[in-house]
Amino acid sequence: MLLLFYFAGFVAVGLAADAESLVGSISRDGADIIRKAQSGFGTVRQCSCAEQAECVEEMKRQANECNRPCFERFSKVTDRVDELFTCFDAKADIIERFLGCFEHQVDGCIQTSMGPQIPKTNISNLFTLAQSALERKDPTLDALLSPIKHILDSAGEWALCLKECFLGRNKHGFCFDRKGKIINYANFPKLDERKAQRSFKRCTHRIHWKDQAGDLCHCSANAGLTELNQYCLLFDHMKSARRHPQRG
């Protein structure tokens, strides 16, 4: 869930100068993150779909509870934080649709609570790796986004706050760990890196993410992040190109 907050936050501040490359890069990074987060942690029981549904709901609730306090990190760049938060909150149903699509497409659970052993994914390590991927420097992109570096810095602080808050709420074990202990061994959804990569691409396109990001960009600009206006035009262009494709 927090990975989606990271994605939404950075898309909102104009990281789609090359939209398709961005989705491809995120999906490739995501596959690499999953692979690294599963390295050296042994195996666990694959969770049932009922267990997954319950744990995903708990994680979404925790992330939502962390989100509003962490949003105050944007007070450094706008005095209209409440308006900015409303922009993101208005897209909550889109995030829900994406999550539902991804959960279905990635096919990580089974119907029985006596599933096979699969590689264990370390959730704490997953978030740390995701944060490192987002902080990775690209000289070309840095130059393109230099006018909004202060906004990106606040977005990074927001994402870090979300991560720390979420991990703090689970310092005694995640829902998947607790569910596993009921039958004496931990459980987790199966995260196949290739299937996750395909699912991410498919689900981002299904929710028309460029349109959603464009709306979010304009709303954020109107909430005080006026420097975003020049980047919002990119989304407008992409939306227009999709609806009125050129004919050769």
TrEMBL record:
<protein>
    <submittedName>
        <fullName>Uncharacterized protein</fullName>
    </submittedName>
</protein>
<keyword id="KW-0732">Signal</keyword>
<feature type="signal peptide">
    <location>
        <begin position="1"/>
        <end position="16"/>
    </location>
</feature>
